[in-house]
Amino acid sequence: MMKFILSIEEKVVGMDRRQSTKIRYPLSTILFLVFFSQLAGAETWGEIADFMEWNEKVLGKYVDLSESCPSHDTFERVMSMISDTHFQELNRCFQEEINFILSKEFSRLISLEGKTMRGNRSKEQSANHIITSYDGENRMSLSQIVVDEKSNEITANVKWLTVRHPQWEKL
Questions:
Q1: Which tens digits make up the pLDDT trace of 50-98?
Q2: Strand 110-117 relative to strand 128-135: parallel, antiparallel, unpaired?
Q3: Are 108 and 135 in contact (CB under 8 A)?
Q4: 3-state SS, one letter per residue, for 109-156
Q5: DSSP conformational letter for 23
Q6: Coil, strand or helix: which one is 15?
């Protein structure tokens, strides 16, 4: 994250048209706070300011918030000075940094779902119970395994995970 903050400071040089004597928050700080709060779902300037107040201690580890958090008016005023193309480029850089951090921490999210396959044509055949693993990011099914009728879906999921990742067997 620090890499992004440093790179954003380089990219915003010359973009800040505010009077230097009246600047309380650097443009890089404002942008970081806007991007971070948007990541949390904030959409309006008021929501962004509220998010900042609620998370001031955490965000203060990354940027200087010694003079408290910027107000919603500050966010709106400063962001109105930035062109849409510059904002989109900076936002893209922020998203790339977040994706890079997440890819190091988590390879991807896999959903595991159990389903009983009903509607068999013959009465002698019982319904199959299947666990499907799905990679939502790539929109594809990774595997399906048939489990016993009486088995617990959770234990079947653990079995699937330990087959795919043997190092997790100890957990």
A1: 998 898 888 888 888 888 888 898 888 888 888 888 888 888 887 777 7
A2: antiparallel
A3: yes
A4: CEEEEEEEECCCCCCCCCCEEEEEEEECCCCEEEEEEEECCCCCHHHH
A5: -
A6: coil
Can you read off the two tokens belonging to residue 121? 């044509």
The residue out of 50, 81, 105 marking a domain boundary is: 105
Report the number of distinct structural domains present in the chain.
2
> What digits encode the pLDDT tens for the residues 130-157?
878 777 776 777 777 777 776 666 777 7
CA 43, CA 98: separation in Å to the nearest integer?
19
- Specify the pTM: 0.55
Distance CA 38, CA 108 (A): 22
DSSP SS3 for 2: helix
Q: In terms of domains, do 29 and 49 share one?
A: yes
